[in-house]
Write the structure tokens for this entry.
Amino acid sequence: MSRGKSWADRVNPAVRDMPPSGIRRFFDLVAEMKDVISLGVGEPDFVTPWHIREACVYALERGYTMYTSNQGLLELREAIAGDIEGNYGVRYDPRSEILITVGVSEGLDLAMRALLAPGDEVLIPEPSYVSYAPCTVLAGGRPVFIKTGVENSFQVTAEMVDAAVTPRTRVLLLCYPNNPTGAVLERATVQAIAEVARVRDLIVFSDEIYDKLTYEGEHVCFSSLPGMKERTVLLNGFSKAYAMTGWRVGYAAGNPDFIAAMTKIHQYTMLCAPITAQTAAVEALRNGRPEMRRMVEQYNRRRHLVLRSFRETGLPCFEPRGAFYAFPDITVTGLSSEEFAGQLLKEEKVAVVPGNAFGEQGEGYVRCAYAASLEDLSEALKRMDRFVKRRAGRGRILTASFAGTK
Ligand code: PLP
């Protein structure tokens, strides 16, 4: 009797052909090594503030161990609506316009699946967060990358968006403050993009998970611009601002019919976000602001340290204004992104992410997450400095000239 197809042959081709995340692939390697300082994974080094953990403990003591409604606790949706309105002046109805998700990750997946028909195009500024293109493909869509670079401060512009639109374009996916570059969008740029979205009838998925980690200038919430609430699916969550990555809670806010469509998929696949995490998130929004601000201040201090250190080392680095990533240009070392990250790990036990994990535009860069303790960060920067200077000693580096490098 034939043994039939192998498991590998049975896998959906869309999944089989999908490369594993460049971040995870690299960190599987790191996990096998000792004494590595990781500037790799984009995860706060802080533990979730105690009052948030305590709220969850109390909830468990009171027996909160069941499912919530599919849309999530109304109490949490109300707190989110209050937070968005307080910060950006845009009002969402907590009963019909907000869905609690299992992190922004699920919100993004639901939005893609609820919107895209096979072959629909999603515009993704690149370098981009690693899950955008795979989520688009899994939902049957086609990612279309818009290349951004240091020459325009890694900001996507209205002209770039307009030039990339085709009759199949449905969605523009924005992520500012940006992972991996730390770029933020200026208000005039966001306004011009909003005009293109209106004229070209685009829906905007706006991943604003780093909104509270904006160090310079303001964060412009896309849906707060005139006429944009109707066109935007706002995605946000608790992972970064409140150091709650492991709790898995986020939300999507948007048009009630679309939120209902997303809720349908959510109800059949996830049912609801964990009640423990939802209870903690309520506490984060009610009383978490002072702690959150303290963490943001710490990141900002580290940001300055990293930039100063790269400058002294001779690694040109675009100045990140948000999130907790620096994206130095490493071409002066004569190494590719993967070579740089691989050799730095081997020789100095510092883990960074090769820039090409974020798409072709990331080649020539590495991503360094400065969500590490000052002590670890200082040591990692010293080791990077040694590594880069050693390459110089071998005659591979050259001019630490800031101009003229990409
Ligand atoms: N969006 C961006 C831009 C991210 O950087 C991340 C995590 O690194 C996520 C979404 C995932 O967030 P969550 O933990 O809410 O699923």
Observations:
- The chain has two domains: 8-47+290-386, 66-286.
- The longest helix spans residues 289-313.
- The radius of gyration is 22 Å.
- The chain is about 40% helix and 10% strand.
